[in-house]
Amino acid sequence: MIGSLRGTILAKRPPMLLVEVAGVGYELEAPLSTFLALPAVGAQVLIHTHLVVRDDAHLLYGFAGEDERRLFRMLLKVNGVGPKLALAVLSGSTVEAFARCIAEGDAAQLTRLPGIGRKTAERLIVEMRDRLAIEAAETAPGPAGAAAEATSALIALGYRPAEAGRMVREVASGEPATAEDLIRRALQRALKG
To answer: Which phi and psi (to 5°) does residue 39 adopt?
Structure first.
């Protein structure tokens, strides 16, 4: 898989981007948010990529940041969402604004994005809420991976992913903690609550 490209921007014609790397020109499709973040034609750039292999084509998608690529990949896992719709979502919203809409269940705001109808917005909320909660738990304070490990353990104990992520975030105090400490604190708090 092609994870990233570092090279010279040869052309920018939304949604197409042409980047030359060691004499080879790579055509990428990118959301408008990426185009706004890119330097001018002729400048050096690092683009995070996602390769989609189909029977009839190999399609390369490019993103200015890792957070955009991560959201793109999460969107592709939602039933009925393909690369074109995922690009439309990223073109019409920031990663933070999209995550806020999902967390708040704001289907009306999601339907303002191109290509998103009421049913798709509701499906996005249902299917993305847990995924975004797990990702938020992985970035909670504490040693790298401790929050994610604690969240996974709580899910294995029967808690819903969104609930497990919330429980871990509530007990992560900013000081270093092991996964075991986070699990113990979360369960103690749940018993008191």
So the answer is: -75, 180
